[in-house]
Amino acid sequence: MTGTLTVVGLGPSGTDFTTPSVLKALEEATDVVGYFTYVDRLPPAGPHQRRHASDNRVEIERARVALSLAAEGRRVVVVSGGDPGVFAMAAAVFEALEYGEPGWRALDVRVEPGITAMLAAAALAGAPLGGDFCAISLSDNLKSWATIERRLTAAAEGDFAIAIYNPASRARPEQLGRAFDLLRRCKPAETVVLFVRAAGSSEAALDITTLGAADHTKADMRTLIIVGSSQTRLIERADQTPWVYTPRSEQVRAS
Ligand code: SAH
Q1: Which of 18, 34, 70, 128 could bridge across to 79 with cysteines, CB 3.0–4.6 Å?
Q2: Mutation to probe ligand 1, out of 223, 225, 226 (largest number of atoms < 8 A from CB)
């Protein structure tokens, strides 16, 4: 039997946002491979399924394990949070495939999309990604800080709304502060900034602030930051959180 490997995204939190297609792939899997945080989110499995949860942060190694299992004829699912193609396991699987055993190329390898954190976060606030936007990860495990600075500067110059993934971790507490300092040099202080924590879960929290006032110490590993474009604005409401949106049109109509 030809083995299969499906890389799935569970969505931002729990399984409420997990697509039926991903749930089906999980049900049919003989082996589930992933970082323990994501494997722990799965509903309990029957005895037919082996789970290979690890705290190994080296994604390519995990991808090789998954490919080896598939090459033995097993139905393997690799789990990621959010979407597997956004700062997650899908690219690691293809990198392992490109440089790995030639026989792995005959495997049935598929990617099942998921709702990525920035979309769940944006939906909580309104429509802040309604115009052109980009996504940047602040993690410098796999790329240099100079690259991150170059991309942030280009995003600011292009007036994109910017979704910032991996804003902080225990090992990297200062990088979001450095990113805000850089953006403050090229964007107005009143630019809308959103901190969205645990989007899609019952603890979801939205904090609306400005680039001038943004406090980088408020972000953790479960926070996604959205820095607005020059067009991103608030719709104020009495005693309620304002809505935040970025109009699609460059000329906003005066009523
Ligand atoms: N593949 C994932 C992203 C992995 S990078 C996806 O598509 O969403 C991990 C980063 O994603 C975190 O540091 C955080 O910035 C963001 N993130 C993941 N889940 C989140 C959630 N529920 N709420 C807010 N941000 C989240």
Answers
A1: 34
A2: 223
Picking from 181, 133, 128, 122, the residue whose alpha carbon sits closest to that of residue 159 is: 133
Specify whether the CB–CB gap between 167 and 176 falls below 8 A.
yes
* CATH numbers and ranges of domains, the chain: 4-115 (3.40.1010.10), 118-245 (3.30.950.10)
Q: Among 236, 235, 230, 234, which Cα is nearest to 251's?
A: 230
pTM of the model: 0.95
φ/ψ of residue 123, rounded to 5:
-65, -35
Instruction: Give the contacts of 35 (CB within 8 A, at least 6 positions apart).
Output: 53, 54, 55, 56, 57, 62, 79
3-state secondary structure 199-218: CCCCCCEEEEEECCCCCHHH
What is the predicted pLDDT for the residue at 140? 87
